[in-house]
Design goal:
Elements: H1 19-23, E1 27-31, E2 35-37, H2 44-48, E3 60-65, E4 68-73, H3 75-83, E5 88-95
Parallel strand pairs: 2-4, 3-5
Antiparallel strand pairs: 1-5, 3-4
């Protein structure tokens, strides 16, 4: 199994972060098997494009909420990492509600 769970929505409250706010968070490594997805589909072109930054950030965006890590943005990066047999992803993590 690649992810802890595959979800299709964001169960956490709106965090209100802009792209600029995300950019201030330092990236860190997160294990793929700790992530819960918030999307259950992706654009295949995003997965296969080596130069893709999709939303403009080189790192995935993860929300820590109620002790769980939710992959908000970067599903294509996470799947690419899994296809390359890596078990970690570099992501910016924001804790909501703490």
């Amino acid at each position: 199994m690649i992810f802890k769970r595959v979800g299709s929505e964001r169960p956490y409250p709106d965090h209100g972060l802009s792209a600029k706010d995300w950019a201030t968070l330092p990236p860190r490594q997160i294990r793929l098997d700790e992530l819960i997805t918030t999307k259950d589909t992706l654009q295949l072109g995003s997965l296969l494009d080596e130069d893709s930054t999709f939303y403009g950030d080189l790192f995935a965006h993860v929300i820590l909420w109620n002790g769980e890590y939710y992959l908000e943005d970067g599903l294509h990066r996470a799947l690419r990492a899994a296809l390359q047999q890596r078990n970690v992803l570099h992501a910016r993590v924001h804790a909501v509600g703490s």
